[in-house]
Amino acid sequence: MKYLYANGCSFVYGDELSNENDGNWLEKKRWSRIFSDKYGVEEINESCNGSSNNRIYRTTKDWILNNEDKLKDTFVVLGWSQAIRTERFNDMAAMHEAINFGVDPDSMCASENNGMDATGHCIPGKGHGPFLGVSPSRKFWHEYNKYYLNESWFTEESALRVFGMQELLNKLNVKYYFYFSMETMVLHYLQQPKNKKLYDFKKIYKLSQEEWITNEVKKQTGGILEWDSKVNTFKNSKGGWSGFNGSHPDEKSHELWADFLYKQYKRLYK
């Protein structure tokens, strides 16, 4: 392995990792950098805050097709996101638009104006940014959200993205591992008896990363995590390590997750 390719949403990007004395704290402390530094490989992280599974699929596919010379030496790790996030290409505006149906309809669209370039890729160091409602088609998506939104359809669409990426990587003999960052809706769909035979669960983690961190907190501290809506974060009932900064993994969680992923690499490919 010479390269680690990582893609996903804010859980992969390292959102809420911050240090007022170090402007590069996020890039240094997220799991992909920890993994790369520890095991002597080059980090390639194309994640984006608020990313949809459509965007993860599209940008990963683009990287794979444009870097065929690196594929045999690359370990691809994807942290899939929420099903009700999506993206569409707005031809009139000549841009990809990210749409998040899980937030307030007045702030559910984003474009390159707040963190994405014209090809729908994250601007380095900026992330996706909040869904500011700057999209030229905001009104259309408001109406869609009100009258047509079907979560089951979006779940199936995400499942197809996971399947398509799995098949592409298998065809090209690329080493990979998938997990779901914080949502289990798509994961449960994949695990249904009628669907399970389509997916290689040796290479797909059966819990979300959020569940894994919660289990680690319980194992290491004996505490149980509970959501505190007043401060918008998880709290450990016994104090000490809670595993999260706000709603995202903290520094220790990123360190542990990097080690977990390396164990999966060794299990599968060594």
Shape: globular
Overall pLDDT: 86
Helix-strand category? alpha/beta
Total strands: 12
Helix percentage: 25-40%
- CATH fold description of the largest domain: Rossmann fold
CATH superfamily assignment of the largest domain?
SGNH hydrolase
What distance lies between the first and last C-alpha atoms, to the nearest angstrom? 11 Å
Question: Uncertain spans, ≥5 residues at pLDDT below 50?
Answer: 124-134
Q: Describe the biggest sheet?
A: 5 strands, parallel
Beta percentage is 15-25%
N to C succession of SSEs: EHHHEHEEEEHHEHHEHEEEEH
Tally of individual domains: 2
Tally the helices: what do you get? Answer: 10
CATH class of the largest domain: Alpha Beta
Radius of gyration: 18 Å
Verbal overview:
- This protein is α/β, with parallel strands linked by helices and 270 residues long.
- It folds into two domains: 3-83 and 151-209 and 250-269, Rossmann fold (3-Layer(aba) Sandwich); 85-148, no CATH class.
- The protein is 39% helix and 20% strand.
- It is built from ten helices and twelve strands.
- The strands form four sheets. A five-stranded parallel sheet has the order 2-1-3-7-8, sandwiched between helices. Strands 4-5-6 form a three-stranded antiparallel sheet, covered by helices on one side. A two-stranded antiparallel ribbon has the order 9-10.
- A hairpin with a 4-residue loop joins strand 4 (85-90) and strand 5.
